Amino acid sequence: MKPIHLRLRRACAAAAATGVLIAPAAAGSASGASVPGRSAAASTVAATPTPTPTPTPTASADTDTGFTPLTPAVAAQLDAAVRRVMREAQVPGVTVGLWAPGKGSYVRSFGVADKATGAPMTPDLHVRIGSETKTFTVTALLQLVDQGKVGLDDHIGDYVTGVPNGDRITLRELAGMRSGLFNYSMDGDFIAQLQADPERYVAPRQLLDYSFKHPVQFEPGAEFDYSNTNLILLGLVVEKITGRPLHEVITQDVLGPAGLRSTVFPTSPALPVPYAHGYTDQTASGKVEDSTRWNPSWAWAAGEMVSDLQDLRSWARTLATGTLLKPATQAERLKTTPMDIPGAGYGLGIFDVQGWIGHNGSIPGYEVLPVYLPSAQATMVIALNTDSQYKGQEPSTLFGEAVTSIVTPDHVYPGHKPVVPRTG
């Protein structure tokens, strides 16, 4: 029986943000819907399959910003790298977006959004964003900090009863993944029940019950350990302080001011149209299944939301630059503590990995990687419709490394480390 994850898995997450060099491509090809540099709305028709371009010499990154100009030759390199990862990791469909001032843009989709019909992947499709949801939940909390309604060093026990070590764990430690609370999505009973009925609704308090039956893992603040339990608690804090459901708070106080019109915090398994179907091997049988209609309620404040490429592009910059928060609060958010990955640190619901700031997201059937590189004012968004790992690696990580190896060789996401096999 394999666990259901919201990845990052443990240390951004032990395997989730760990890089591996891309091996030579297997035989095969991927069809692509390619409209570089145009809006998502303009990129809705699949192009006919094209052969992999003849490799060209790798372009040098701009010495001022560390970002390689997105010339046609570089776009051809990116096309080839994306197709190679798709073949190796057996990814049905992926969209990659890159934008950097003065360097051009690259927006292309490859493969299929629906394996049953063969409908192409296109840049305008909605996808579930998994743990990227954490960035919205923590933003809602930090807005309340700005309003003086809550303090980061308040104890969770002041807001939610029955939390182990609740009189000692702070909201800061929850947001920074240093609480020591057991990750409910690693609980055996939770996994069995969700795999038996993935369309069932699970309430936030039920999720806490799965966690709290386990002993705490370590003293508050002593270690970094990625736990979805932390975000369920922060969601409950936001609800208690505001007196409103979390989905309403995020919709009205975060999505609205951020200008995100295609991002939703759903209250049902339904996806906004148009959407990509999702495929996962996190099933009771271990076989790949269509998880599009699985109920994401079990992820709630830790991973329930849905978005699209252009909104994720906008949000990556908003998140990294802190335009919805006071500067002092954003500075607190960006104070990172080390993870077990060289060149990586985790702040308050956000990471800095080799200079790329943001958060990845994974939920059965989908993965996203929206990140921002301040030194180049560059944004990268990768969205795909599977979370099935390849040799212990998240496919979004493999795409991220393949892309950044070309465009930001001094800031390769997530850096290089031996493969960590799937253990959970």
Automatic annotation (TrEMBL):
InterPro entries: AmpC-like, Beta-lactam-related, Beta-lactam/transpept-like. It comes from Streptomyces nojiriensis. Residues 78-388 form the Beta-lactamase-related domain. It comes from the Bacteria. This is Beta-lactamase. The keyword Signal applies. Residues 42-68 are annotated as: Disordered. Coiled coil: none annotated. PANTHER family: D-ALANYL-D-ALANINE CARBOXYPEPTIDASE, D-ALANYL-D-ALANINE-CARBOXYPEPTIDASE/ENDOPEPTIDASE AMPH. Residues 1-25 form the signal peptide. Pfam families: Beta-lactamase (PF00144). Keywords: Signal.
